[in-house]
Amino acid sequence: MSEPRVLHTVTPVWHSLPISRIAGRPVHLKMEALQPVGSFKIRGIGHLCQNAVAGGARHFVSSSGGNAGVAAAYAGRELGVRTTVFVFHGVPDTARQRMEEYGAEVVMAGPSWQEAHEAASLVAERDGAFYVHPFDHPDIWAGHSTLVDEVVAQGLQPKLVVVAVGGGGLLTGLMQGLDRHGLEKTRILTVETHGTESFFAARAAGHLVRLPRINSVAKTLGAAQVATEAFELAKQHDVESLVVTDEQALAACRQFALDHRILVEPAAGAALAAAYGQLGAVARAEDVLVIVCGGVGIALKDDIFAYTPRDPD
């Protein structure tokens, strides 16, 4: 019997000379921006969708701030499964257009991901469809954990990993992968932007916290509450949480485009900001691996080079 097709690709690890010079220490980049859908999301969501099809799923319903919906749409096309994605107002046009190009039906539902999630869940239950959660499912975490398999196979065992956190799916997969390879002592620096910092707030409070609203240009980090598994598993790891401004994240996007000729969205810019700015644990690490999560919610027409900071609340 043939092996099931893998929907993600093995991405390279780059030694970033420009960032290493600034940080004063070796900085490597796991280039998830080079996935076929433009972000790491296809690892977990592709794995989830493949297992769902094996179990008889014939219709995917998902909710998304952009990247998860694109990954679900891509998986649906590759697996020959009808796909519906619920999005919210503010999701970038580039992401919605990509979902439609992959053949998904895109439905607008409310001002935030929470409303899109609720609408998608209701439709999935009503129609007997398989709900493709964007970040909170064991199959998603298992898929994301393959990133660590690749890093180890590529000869790297970093002392510090820097990762952006939205709903916590990537963080959970990262921790599971580190544990599998005996790297549970590797330090992790999580980065969020002001206005999306549900993980930071939960760790400060000692319990899960639901943000009253999302207020950041990093829309794909906009989960009002981080997944329970990410919060609980982080208690077993050496994790430091950091929050950066929109301006810092976008400045990192701009500099990264100049240094490496690749556009990434503000979610990836948040993690890169820690490396460029030598923030938090980066300033104390011997070497650093940044997960460049990528993102399709960015385009040249967005003109991030002329970003105007929002007025303070």
Overview of the molecule:
There is one protein chain. α7 links the parallel β7 and β8. The protein has eleven helices and ten strands. It is globular. The strands form two sheets. The chain has a six-stranded mixed beta sheet, sandwiched between helices. Strands 5-4-3-6 form a four-stranded parallel beta sheet, with helices on both faces. It is an alpha/beta fold and 313 residues long. It has helices at 17-23, 41-54, 67-79, 93-101, 113-127, 138-153, 169-180, 198-205, 228-234, 246-260, 266-276, and strands spanning 13-15, 27-31, 59-64, 82-87, 105-108, 130-132, 160-164, 187-193, 239-244, 288-292. The chain has two domains: 13-40 and 137-306, 3-Layer(aba) Sandwich (Rossmann fold), CATH 3.40.50.1100; 41-132, Rossmann fold, CATH 3.40.50.
